[in-house]
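Severity: low
Component: inverse-folding endpoint
Summary: output formatting inconsistent between runs
Steps to reproduce: submit the following structure tokens with default settings.
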């Protein structure tokens, strides 16, 4: 199911949709990781919350 672009709010800004290529692209460019790493982080954490994913990927890079 795609992102409902008419619903814009804090809840939507805090999530990364794995089905929206532009969201994956932005997130991977911001963190300097691959799209595969972002998808793997979503699977590994079971979450699409930006903060959870950012923390996971930063700790994984160490």
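Observed output (run 2 of 3):
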């Amino acid at each position: 199911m795609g992102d409902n672009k008419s619903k814009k709010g804090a809840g939507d800004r805090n999530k990364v949709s794995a089905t929206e290529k532009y969201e994956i692209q932005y997130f991977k460019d911001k963190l300097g990781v691959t799209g595969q790493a972002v998808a793997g982080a979503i699977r590994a954490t079971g979450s699409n919350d930006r903060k959870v994913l950012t923390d996971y990927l930063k700790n994984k890079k160490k």
